[in-house]
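Board notes (copied after class):
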Amino acid sequence: MRFAALTVVFLSMLAAWAHAASPPSPADQQELRDFLKSTINASDSFEDRFAAEVWLVDMSGRLKPFIKDPKERLELLKSIHREATKAELKPDLVLALIQVESSFNSYAISRAGAQGLMQVMPFWKKEIGRPDDNLTDINTNLSYGCRILQFYLKKEDGNWMTALARYNGSYGKYWYPERVMDAWRKRWYIDESL
């Protein structure tokens, strides 16, 4: 349950920055740059094989309307779970954010120039000293997006709504966080108490 709440918060933060037409304040920018550098690489995500199979089968069925190929779905889901878990985010909330951001199109580009599944702004590559990174690469995009969302969630003391608004660049407004939370409740939510 803790991973789920963290995932939603971090996804929100990434979306806010991903849609921002300009970089955050210099202090936030430096703080996030340092955070991204220190956390960009992490370990595997599933506790055991059974948990992996249950989650992957369940989510694959939910993802089918967006991605028809079963192998592509499973590879994407493993990547999402890994990157969300490394960032201490709930994978099902990251799925909701991706649905809202790009509708699972890894080549999506926004009017503001945000790229990939999680709609990450290209200036982040330069900010963290990785100018050659490809934001349309699924794993790269997920890594950036999840860590940016994680940063905003921590900055907002676990408040998913404000973290998601920051991620989207709509801080102070709630239309974007409401869209993500609505997608989460309708398609991706997992009741971990069962």
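Comment from the instructor: Residues 1-22, 38-43 have pLDDT under 50 and may be disordered. The chain has one domain: 2-188.
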